[in-house]
Amino acid sequence: MEDAPTKLKVTVTLCDADWQKIQDLLNKQREWVINQAQTTVREVKTMLVEERKKTMSRYKEYDGCHLGHYAQWFFWFFFVLGFFIFDAAVVTLVGKCLNWF
Torsions phi, psi of 28, nearest 5? Predict the structure, then answer.
């Protein structure tokens, strides 16, 4: 063991036909990996689209066909409008009592 070399020197000679076979195998492997990745990406996109459709139908069921968003804006518009009308009425009454107007 003491006389064993720390590094082995290996040389390989290949003919052009063998080198071409290796390159073809590597190219086929690379194409297969790329195709598998593209297939996986397509499957994930399809799964996300289906999940989005399920989620939209779930909210459509519970939210009254997406009217919840519009009902919320309707409520807030009239709430703010009523708040300012109430404030204006109070300021007018206080102003009349104190003879501001």
Answer: -65, -40
Q: Is the pTM of this model over 0.70?
A: no
Non-local (6+) Cβ contacts of 66 within 8 A are 59, 60
Q: What residue type is 99 in one-letter code?
A: N
pLDDT interval class at 22 (50, 70, 90): very high
DSSP string, the chain: -TTS-SS--------HHHHHHHHHHHHHHHHHHHHHHHHHHHHHHHHHHHHHHHHHHHHHHHHTTTHHHHHHHHHHHHHHHHHHHHHHHHHHHHHHHTT--
